[in-house]
Automatic annotation (TrEMBL):
Organism: Euphydryas editha
GO biological process, one term: protein transport
GO molecular function: phosphatidylinositol phosphate binding
InterPro entries reported in the protein's UniProt record: PX_dom, PX_dom_sf, SNX20/SNX21
Keyword presence, Membrane: yes
Protein name: PX domain-containing protein
Pfam hit, one: PX
Keywords attached to this entry: Endosome, Lipid-binding, Membrane, Protein transport, Transport
C-alpha cells in the first residue's frame, strides 16, 4: 500500500535574496497491509509549501471532481513559522497525498509527476553541469527510490530517472562506471518487456552507454553488441544516435 507521511519540518534560511521558508520532510513508503509492516527502506525528500500548492492547483485544474472533498490551506503573508500552522498544513498535505495514493488518475497527472520528480531533477542537472557527478548520482538515486514507489517498474517516469542514473556514467567519462553498473543491469532488465516506441528510442542509447560501461569495467559486452545488431537488422537506427542523457531529456519533454 502506497503511503505518504510528513515526518518532520524545518525552517530554512534563504540564500541570496530568497526569504526563509519551511521545508517539509515527505516520507514515501510501500507498507504491507496484511502484516502491518512498514516499508524498511522508505524514500525521504523535502518539499516546500509552494510545491504542494502547485500540486493542488494543477490537480484541481485537471481532475476537479476528485478534489471536491480536499481543502487546501491558503497562503498567508505572516505567521508561516507558527507551529500550529505548520502542523495543520502537514495534515492537509497528507490528506492530498493520500488521495493521490488511492487514485491512479491523480498520480499520472502532469502536476503530480512534476511534484514527485522536478525538485531532484533540477538539482541533479545543476550538479551535472558543474561536473559534480557523484553528488548528482546520489540525488538521482533518491529520486528513483521515490518514483519507483509511486509508479510502476516500467512506467515512463521511472525508466526515465533510471536511464538518467546510467547516463551519469557517460557524463562522467567513465568515472562512475563502477557505481552505475548495478543500475545499468537493472535498466536492461526493465527494458526486456518494454514495447512503447518512444521508450525504445532511449533503449538504443542505453545499450551504447552500457557497452561503454562494460568496456571500462572489463565485462563481456558481446550480448549487448548482439542486441544492437539485432535492432539494426530490424531497420532501427543504431548508429549516430543521441547520448543517453540527451535521449532522456527528449523523453522528459513529452511526459
Amino acid at each position: 500500500m502506497l503511503k505518504f507521511e510528513i515526518v518532520s519540518s524545518r525552517t530554512v534560511e534563504g540564500v541570496d535574496k530568497e526569504k526563509k521558508f519551511v521545508a517539509y520532510m515527505l516520507q514515501v513508503r510501500q507498507d504491507s497491509t496484511e502484516s502491518r509492516v512498514f516499508d524498511p527502506d522508505p524514500a525521504n525528500v523535502e518539499r516546500r509549501y509552494t510545491h504542494f500548492l502547485d500540486l493542488y492547483n494543477g490537480l484541481k485544474k485537471d481532475c476537479p471532481s476528485l478534489l471536491n472533498n480536499i481543502s487546501f490551506p491558503r497562503k498567508i503573508v505572516v505567521g508561516n513559522f507558527d507551529p500550529n500552522l505548520i502542523s495543520s498544513r502537514c495534515t492537509a498535505f497528507e490528506s492530498l497525498l493520500n488521495l493521490i495514493a488511492s487514485e491512479s488518475r491523480l498520480r499520472e497527472a502532469p502536476a503530480a509527476i512534476s511534484f514527485f520528480q522536478d525538485v531532484e531533477l533540477k538539482d541533479a542537472r545543476k550538479l551535472l553541469d558543474e561536473g559534480k557527478f557523484d553528488q548528482a548520482l546520489s540525488i538521482l538515486e533518491t529520486s528513483f527510490k521515490l518514483l519507483n514507489k509511486v509508479y510502476t517498474d516500467r512506467s515512463r517516469v521511472v525508466l526515465s530517472v533510471l536511464c538518467r542514473i546510467v547516463a551519469c556514467a557517460g557524463s562522467s567519462g567513465g568515472a562512475l562506471a563502477g557505481p552505475v553498473e548495478k543500475w545499468a543491469q537493472l535498466a536492461l532488465r526493465r527494458y526486456e518487456a518494454v514495447s512503447d516506441s518512444d521508450l525504445l528510442l532511449i533503449y538504443i542509447p542505453l545499450l551504447h552507454t552500457c557497452i561503454s560501461i562494460w568496456e571500462t569495467l572489463g565485462r563481456d559486452k558481446s550480448k549487448l553488441v548482439e542486441e544492437l545488431n539485432s535492432l539494426r537488422k530490424k531497420g532501427m537506427k543504431v548508429d549516430s544516435v543521441p547520448s543517453l542523457m540527451e535521449a532522456v531529456d527528449s523523453l522528459d519533454a513529452t511526459i
